[in-house]
């Protein structure tokens, strides 16, 4: 699936992923390939992207955000985020 992490300042990540774990308002959850369409509010916390080659990249959302999943495309809009 295609994943983008975007802040008002820049695009932090764009690429293919096997899965993404995010800090939802009701708790952490994971999005995998062929996930049902969803829009959810995110809290401050860690984001883990599992890449196709088996490695992971980690980001920290510092001000909350929103995630949209639709047809194997994930867009994460964050108020502020950094790669850790």
The biggest beta sheet, please? 5 strands, mixed
Number of contiguous helices: 0
Domain count: 1
How much is the average pLDDT?
Answer: 96
Helix content: under 10%
Give the class from helix and strand content and strand pairing: mainly beta
Q: What series of H and E elements makes up the topology? A: EEEEEEEEEE
User: What is the terminal separation in angstroms?
Assistant: 22 Å
C-alpha Rg (nearest Å):
11 Å
CATH superfamily: F0F1 ATP synthase delta/epsilon subunit, N-terminal
Low-confidence stretches: none
The CATH C-level class name: Mainly Beta
In total, the number of strands is 10
Write up what this structure looks like.
The protein is mainly beta. The chain has one domain: ATP Synthase, domain 1. Helix content is 0%, strand content 65%. The protein has a five-stranded mixed β-sheet, with no helix packed on it. The protein has a five-stranded antiparallel β-sheet with strand order 4-3-6-7-10, with no helix packed on it. The radius of gyration is 11 Å and the shape is globular. The relative contact order is 0.31. The mean pLDDT is 96.
């Amino acid at each position: 699936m295609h994943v983008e992490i975007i802040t008002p300042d820049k695009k932090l990540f764009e690429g293919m992923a096997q899965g993404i774990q995010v800090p939802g308002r009701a708790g952490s959850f994971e999005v995998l390939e062929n996930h049902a369409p969803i829009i959810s509010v995110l809290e401050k916390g860690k984001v883990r992207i599992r890449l196709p080659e088996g490695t992971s990249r980690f980001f920290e959302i510092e001000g909350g955000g929103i995630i949209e999943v639709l047809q194997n495309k994930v867009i994460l809009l964050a108020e502020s985020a950094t790669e850790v």
